Amino acid sequence: MANAFASAENRREALGYLFDMCDTSLDGRMDMTELAAFNSIVTTSVKKTQNASTYEAMNVAGKIFSFIGLNAEKKLTKEQFIEECEKIPLLKTMFKVKK
After folding, report:
1. Which residues, in sequence order, are CB contacts of 6 under 8 Å at separation 6+?
2. Which Gene3D superfamilies does the protein's record reference (predicted)?
3. How would you class 33 by CB atoms within 10 Å of its CB: exposed for 0-12, middle for 13-18, buried for 19 or more?
């Protein structure tokens, strides 16, 4: 994950790389299984890198799982994923790109 962000010019690009890493079906959409993998990574990372409490990490986790409710297909496009991640302050801080 760190390598994806090292080459990113901005947070949206970094989140796009992260989406691509989690889109294991390579269909350009993230389903619940792929979102769960992302959630697992983020929940662990938020606690370690942002000194977040378990409650804060679980709150972020709940918000991430709510992303999937955005469309009838129960899959997120890359743009939807990025837009939803941008709404969560801890994720914005966590995926801040320093250039």
Report:
1. none
2. EF-hand
3. exposed
Q: Which two tokens stand for residue 64?
A: 């991430």
The pTM is what?
0.76
Spatial distance between the Cα atoms of 11 and 28, rounded to a whole number of angstroms: 19
> In the chain, what are the domains?
2-94 (1.10.238.10)
Amino acid at 25: S
Instruction: List Cβ neighbours of 72 (8 Å cut-off, separation of 6 or more).
Output: none
Could you tell me which residues come within 8 angstroms of residue 38 by beta carbon, excluding any fewer than 6 positions away? 18, 22, 30, 64
